[in-house]
């Protein structure tokens, strides 16, 4: 009896093997679906780069991965992006590190006044810096890209031609850029970019300090008729992924994401640089915006005010146990390397 039972089991086993062997075309696996959260509206550069990444990933994984994008803070907002991704509320998120200056001390050092000339150089410098120091703050996420804005300029409803014009002026800025404005004597008002639209309308601020593509993308040129060229610090951004979701990805998909990291960062820098030019052409031609260039003598006064900013940052970062001088030296060396 036991013998017969054993044979039956064997037969069933062999049959099942044959069945699977001869089964028609294998059932196609469901694609891996990933959610990608972003805080500003769809036409702005953080979302443009998100859509570019989605397109590249879907193409390069041949449909194995589908990315669902959520612009405009529909899944996670500006200030809970990092924690939301860590908690798994979104699989991927794009964040502006200036909104949490104390959390991203090392990477935010790229917004010291060290002369990053454009977004392409800024993005490559930021990527290398993060890779070298790998700050603990990113230990719970997988970093998929890092990029920066173009250097910041003053956009305002009133003309700013001198430091006197700037004194006490309420301008929106965050993080390192806010410190720069403070050093010049303006009154920096911190808030995430999307909140700036209403703040300008209601007169809470008289302008803002940011890269100039926002003149077109947020239509700030309609109310800010003056741009004072300062080309000062950049704003750094990161794209991060939930670590469990990353670990669960097949190896070939991980390779696609890894191969895209620097490419995507540089692509975004290039897009930003090009888009700033187009936005300013539109602002000057169709919105009659006046671009104010500081005279050499005036510029020297503005620069002198910034001289202590880096030294002060070094002191504070050292007190927190960071190799602050080395970080600043690395940023300068990387700027030289990529600006050539
Ligand atoms: N002003 C900075 C950076 C920034 C520049 N352009 C955009 C567009 C959308 C969101 C943010 C930004 C900031 O608020 O982070």
What is the oligomeric state here? single chain
Work out the strand percent.
Answer: 15-25%
What is the ordering of alpha helices and beta strands? HEHEHEHHEEHEHEHEHEEHHEHH
Helix content range: 40-55%
Distance between the termini: 85 Å
Give a quick account of the main beta sheet: strands, pairing sense, barrel closure.
Answer: 6 strands, mixed
Overall domain count:
1
Mean pLDDT: 94
Q: By CATH's scheme, which homologous superfamily applies? A: Bacterial extracellular solute-binding protein, family 7
The kinds of small molecule bound in this structure are:
D-tryptophan
Quickly count the helices.
13
Q: State the strand order across the main sheet.
A: 7-6-8-5-9-11
> Which structural class best describes the helix and strand composition?
alpha/beta
CATH class: Alpha Beta
Shape designation: globular
Descriptive overview:
It is globular and about 65 Å long. Helix 2 packs antiparallel against helix 11 (251-287) and helix 7 packs across helix 12 (296-319). The N and C termini lie far apart (85 Å). It contains 13 helices and eleven strands. It has a six-stranded mixed β-sheet, with helices on both faces. The chain is an alpha/beta fold and 340 residues long. The chain has helices spanning 2-22, 45-60, 81-87, 105-108, 119-133, 163-166, 175-184, 193-202, 214-217, 243-247, 251-287, 296-319, 324-339; strands at residues 32-37, 65-70, 92-96, 141-148, 153-156, 170-172, 187-189, 207-210, 226-229, 236-242, 290-293. It has one domain (32-339): D-Maltodextrin-Binding Protein, domain 2, CATH 3.40.190.170. The longest helix is centred in the C-terminal third of the chain and has 37 residues, at 251-287. The chain binds D-tryptophan (DTR). D-tryptophan binds next to helix 2.
């Amino acid at each position: 009896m036991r013998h017969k039972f054993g044979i039956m089991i064997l037969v069933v086993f062999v049959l099942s093997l044959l069945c699977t062997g001869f089964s028609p075309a294998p059932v196609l696996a469901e694609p891996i679906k990933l959610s990608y959260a972003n805080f500003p509206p769809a036409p702005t550069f953080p979302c443009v780069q998100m859509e570019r990444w989605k397109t590249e990933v879907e193409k390069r994984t041949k449909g194995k991965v589908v990315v669902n994008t959520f612009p405009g803070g529909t899944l996670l907002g500006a200030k809970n992006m990092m924690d939301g991704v860590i908690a798994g509320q979104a699989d991927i998120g794009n964040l502006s590190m200036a909104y949490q200056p104390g959390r991203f001390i090392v990477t935010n050092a790229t917004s010291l006044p060290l002369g990053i000339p454009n977004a392409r150089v800024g993005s490559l410098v930021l990527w290398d810096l993060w890779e070298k120091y790998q700050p603990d703050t990113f230990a719970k996420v997988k970093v998929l890209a890092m990029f920066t804005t173009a250097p910041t300029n003053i956009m305002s409803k009133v003309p700013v031609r001198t430091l006197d014009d700037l004194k006490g002026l309420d301008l929106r800025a965050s993080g390192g850029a806010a410190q720069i404005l403070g050093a010049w004597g303006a009154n920096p008002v911190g808030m995430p970019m999307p909140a700036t639209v209403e703040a300008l309308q209601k007169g809470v601020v008289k302008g803002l300090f940011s890269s100039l593509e926002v003149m077109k993308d947020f239509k700030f040129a309609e109310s800010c008729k003056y741009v004072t060229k300062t080309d000062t610090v950049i704003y750094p951004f990161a794209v991060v992924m939930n670590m469990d979701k990353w670990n669960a990805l097949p190896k070939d998909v991980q390779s696609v994401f890894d191969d895209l990291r620097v490419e995507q960062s540089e692509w975004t820098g290039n897009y930003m640089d090009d888009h700033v030019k187009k936005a300013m052409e539109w602002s000057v031609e169709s919105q009659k915006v006046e671009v104010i260039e500081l005279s050499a003598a005036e510029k020297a006064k503005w620069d002198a005010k910034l001289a202590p900013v880096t030294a002060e940052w070094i002191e504070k970062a050292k007190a927190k146990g960071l190799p602050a001088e080395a970080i600043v030296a690395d940023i300068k060396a990387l700027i030289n390397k990529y600006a050539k």
